[in-house]
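aspartate transaminase
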Amino acid sequence: MDRSSRIKGVLAGGSDGWEVFHKSRAMIAAGVPVTELTIGEHDIRTAAPILQEMHRSALAGHTGYAAVPGKDALRDRIAKRAEERTGVRTTRDNVVVTPGGQAGLFAAFMTACDPGDAALYIDPYYATYPGTLRAAGARPVAVAARAEHGFLPRGSDLAAAATGAKALLINTPNNPTGVIYGRETLTEIAKVCQDRDLWLVSDEVYDTQIWEGEHLSPRALPDMADRTLVIGSMSKSHAMTGSRCGWIIGPEDIIADIIDLATHTNYGVPGFIQDASNYALAQGDALEREIGAPFERRRTLAHQVLAAQNVVRLVPSQGAMYLMLDIRATGLSGSDFADAMLESLHIAVMPGESFGAAAAGHVRVAMTIEDSAFETALRSLCSFAEGRASRAA
């Protein structure tokens, strides 16, 4: 029996970008010690009080079907948080709870695009973006944000690519680059969306991890609330990656449509996970700062390490839990550099090419291991790069 063209087309016959990660996991399974700086998985686990609330809720019987849009208490909490941070009036009717941010992205594009519609996204991109767009029936169109422009997208490039498009996907703070889109960049993006009548899907799962500047949700810009779908998640802000609890915030009529889609796909998020998420959000900024503190601290360590050499260049990292490193001075592609370092040093990083053509010649480092081990691994990376650069010279 043949598979559907839809499922065969998710990767369009290409790579999923995770080869180095899979290779490192295979080495670990074979007993080889590997320092993993690949995925955005916290080295701390979900805080005990959140797990205790999850346990309490489950024992209280909240293990059956939960309300598909999400429990009212959680939707109210998410709405209040969004309104306080953006100034845009938000109620539970603007919120649907989803099984993580990834499911939110899929639902957003199922809602925004008809089969075959073009959907723009920014290159470099999180590795699942093009496959998610294809799975939703859209036609992915990458728009490069170039290294020489600080990996910030330009309105003129977006406008040139927007003919016939229905939606644009952005991510700020950005994975993989760590760049934050400021007001000027977001205003250009908003103008393109308004001029070309595009839905804007704004992935804001790193909105609590801000090291320089500030996070601005494009939903807060003039005349953008009615055409913006914001993706949020408990995963990064509260170290709840395995709990799979996220949300979409958008116009009431569109949220009602997404609720219909959820009824016919995932049928909601378990009630005990929603109760734990509500509890976690109720702890406010203090807990979010605690979860983000190790990454801010390691970012400072990275600045110190990288300042002592001149081969590896750091893309200015303003937010999120990653560093994007320019290793073009070695003469290697990001893929070759990552493969060689894994083989020789047993240190795993993600090639820039896993995140699109615009990130070629770079590698992404996740700041997700203990401080001293992270510093040691980064110094080893720099020494490795210096050796390769000497050979290239």
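thats it. DSSP finds 14 helices and twelve strands in the chain. The chain has two domains: 5-45+286-387, 64-283. bye
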